[in-house]
Design goal:
- With 690 residues, this protein is of the alpha/beta class.
- It is 30% helix and 19% strand.
- The protein has 24 helices and 28 strands.
- Strands 5-4-18-17-16-6-7 form a 7-stranded mixed beta sheet, with helices on one face. It has a 6-stranded mixed beta sheet with strand order 24-26-25-28-23-27. It has a 5-stranded parallel beta sheet with strand order 10-9-8-12-13.
- Helix 4 packs parallel to helix 20 and helix 5 crosses helix 14.
- The longest helix is centred in the first third of the chain and has 19 residues.
- The protein starts with a strand and ends with a strand.
Length: 690
């Protein structure tokens, strides 16, 4: 047996479950095993979690800073790389102003990194132009949840509560593939799954509703209609704990089940059965995922499912509720501490004078020194290199060349910049376009905190030093800030020191971390925010005594169904929808470097109904051209008899000509600015190669 050198308790680097793991540094490498005591994963891990240590030693792991010279990225030292960046930023700011420099962050960054990145952008750069890839993930549900409840937290209850449920409705979520350990909590409840595909989760469902892509809002309105007209409305709860029901019912009144069936394809009988299952259950939950939210009407769709939950009296009760299944590893914490265009730490609005005063006092500046809100993620990327847009961009923890909608256009915009800087652990597709690439630490090489989908703040612990000359993102920000004339003490490089400041900055905000400390976390306390002081036990269940609006009531939303921004036509007769598969994660920059995962999911594919494939002249295993008005993706055909014949599905993890986001468009939700990833009009053709 190899000698065991060191073991730490930490968490998986991937999804927002943040499964507990124990890492051991052995002579043969890093070994991982699940933490059987951590309640979220209860001793389970998915294939990605078991193989996560392989990314630490990826063959092309970045070890040295790189600067583009003569058209090629060449190794340099840290001082030289940071000088190039600082000089480039200074030139851009002098010629075009502070907002000509932008920052693009990530939902996988630790709380400390996300916090310091937002501070760096607004003080060291003086720019309003900062957003992050969580805009593509959580923004619609966050906007709807904030409006309904006065506060957004992915799950306002512990994950473990789901295991005692009688019924759980999953709208647009496939956790059996995207976060498999969650299924340990979903084995006992009857599942109602809403998904155009017969996914691995739908296979386990007691009832599968299969709406046409882009019609989830009509279906949610129809379910509310059934709740009211079939006498299932919890009138006492609605009267005591909510407001706005009459207006929301007026909007839903026209969506009787048979009309919904014509619009969505979901039989009226199944609609009634779904609502009856929820209403008859003693303990029931409504959960939404990206399938319902990644639409140009995603906020209204999430709001419509919240309406259903409120009508049945679920939120704010022990054993029942509404929640959304956060995707990225720190998708919750990442949106709470200031890397979003319109927010300051503690989930504060950047436009709120009181919020600005509080945060500026912690930062030691005047409120007027803080810029206002900037562009949302896609709008920021779309503006790059334009006359009025940013001319320099710093990217931390994101790969928009693969993950952003209208991906070819985004790559063109990145190429138009005067300066592109990417901090990453591997040469992602975005890093390959950069002028400067900075090698940074990853999960097992750093300390910090993450916040999982249930609002539980967790300790990430360092097992080993990074390879080569890789540095932490905190060190990168410190080095750049001091070169730009900022005092060094304003940008600490120690995660604990950053967290202590984050605690002060978040105090009194919606996401109040002021009572959470490394000491309490290291002592084993389970702390969910808000936690306003060190005597507070944290808040695992929100809203039991009232919602976060001043009157304590939740708000129904009056929402109307509308079509997707793009509908099929004679030229593009099918609808493409995108999503994830078990063996890959996000843009694939990490998982595509793990041999076992590549063997399981090696290339882009497109799921097609056999009848649809036959009409297009395609057979199983053929290479297909999937084309939209934006571009063409190449993918291997998989025939799936359970898929709707008007729909095709592509995973979005693959680069180059296989990018699913070559197809997606730039329609945005008017409230959350969520792009419409889930609906693109496409056509299928065989790929003919000479």
């Amino acid at each position: 047996m190899p000698e065991r050198l060191r073991t730490v308790a930490t968490h998986c680097p991937y999804c927002a479950l943040q499964c507990g793991t124990r890492l051991t540094r052995e002579r043969a490498g890093v070994a991982v095993r699940p933490d059987a005591d951590f309640p979220v994963n209860q001793g389970g891990l998915c294939q990605k979690g078991w193989t996560a240590p392989a990314v630490l030693t990826a063959a092309d792991r970045l070890h040295h800073p790189l600067v583009r010279r003569g058209g090629r990225l060449r190794p340099t030292d840290w001082s030289g790389a940071l000088d190039v960046i600082a000089d480039g930023i200074t030139r851009v700011r002098r010629s075009r102003g502070a907002d000509a420099v932008a920052v693009f962050g990530g939902g996988g960054l630790t709380n400390e990194k996300a916090y310091l990145l937002g501070k760096f952008a607004r003080l060291a750069l003086g720019t309003s132009q900062i957003d992050y890839n969580g805009r593509f993930c959580m923004s619609a549900a966050a906007a709807a949840g904030g409006a309904a409840f006065g506060l957004d937290r992915g799950l306002p209850f512990p994950v473990t509560d789901l295991g005692a449920a009688d019924v759980v409705l999953l709208a647009g979520s496939n956790p059996a593939e995207t976060m498999p350990p969650l299924m340990r909590h979903l084995g006992a409840p009857d599942l109602v799954v809403l998904d155009p595909r017969r996914t691995a989760t739908a296979e386990r469902a007691a009832l599968h509703l299969q709406p046409a892509p882009g019609t989830d809002l009509a279906l949610a309105l129809g379910l509310l209609h059934v709740a009211v007209t079939d006498g299932l409305l919890d009138r006492d709860y609605v009267a005591a704990r909510t407001s706005g029901f009459a207006e929301s019912w007026q909007a839903a009144a026209g969506w009787w089940p048979e009309r919904v069936e014509r619009t969505t394809g979901v039989p009226a009988a199944d609609q009634r059965a779904a609502v009856r299952m929820l209403a008859d259950a003693e303990r029931a939950y409504v959960l939404t995922g990206r399938g319902a939210e990644q639409h140009s009407k995603g906020t209204d769709t999430a709001a419509a499912f919240i309406n259903l939950a409120l009508a049945l009296g679920l939120p704010g009760r022990v054993g029942s509720g509404y929640g959304c299944l956060t995707g990225q590893g720190n998708g919750q914490g990442g949106r709470e501490h200031g890397q979003k265009a319109d927010q300051l730490p503690g989930y504060r609005s950047i436009g709120d004078p009181a919020a600005r005063a509080h945060v500026s006092s912690v930062w030691g500046v005047a409120p007027a020194d803080l810029p206002g809100p900037g562009r949302s993620a896609y709008e920021l990327l779309d503006a790059l290199g334009t006359e009025d847009g940013p001319r320099a961009l710093l990217v931390f923890g994101s790969n928009p060349v693969v993950s952003a909608p209208r991906a070819a256009h985004v790559a063109d915009r990145l190429a138009a910049l005067d300066l592109l800087v990417v901090a990453d652990v591997v040469p992602s597709e975005t890093a390959q376009l950069a002028d400067v690439v900075l090698p940074v630490t990853q999960w097992a090489e750093e300390d910090g905190t993450m916040t999982n989908l249930e609002g539980r703040v967790l300790r990430r612990r360092r097992l080993q030093p990074p390879p080569g000359h890789a540095r932490s993102d905190l060190e990168v920000l410190h080095g750049l800030a001091t070169r730009l004339g900022q005092p060094g003490h304003r940008y600490p490089t120690t995660p604990k020191e950053v967290f202590e400041e984050l605690r002060r900055a978040s105090a009194g905000g919606g996401a109040d971390y002021s009572g959470i400390s490394y000491e309490r976390l290291d002592a084993g306390e389970a702390l969910h925010w808000p936690c306003p002081d060190e005597a507070h036990p944290g808040t695992p269940r929100l809203f039991l005594d009232g919602f976060a609006h001043p009157d304590g009531r939740a708000r129904f939303a009056a929402v109307e169904h509308r079509d997707a921004a793009e509908l099929p036509d004679a030229r593009y007769p099918l609808t493409a929808t995108t999503g994830r598969v078990l063996a890959q994660y996000q843009s694939g920059a990490q998982t595509r470097r793990v041999p076992e995962l590549v063997a399981a999911a090696p290339e882009p594919f497109v799921e097609v109904h056999p009848d649809t494939a036959r009409r297009a002249g395609l057979v199983e295993g053929a290479l297909a051209r999937v084309s939209s008005a934006r571009g063409t993706a190449l993918a291997r055909v998989r025939l799936v008899g359970t898929l709707r014949s008007d729909t095709v599905f592509l995973p979005f993890h693959f680069p180059g000509d296989g990018r699913a986001n070559l197809l997606t468009g730039d329609a945005l939700d008017p409230r959350s600015r969520m792009p419409e990833f889930k609906v693109s009009a496409v056509r299928l053709e065989p790929e003919v190669r000479a």
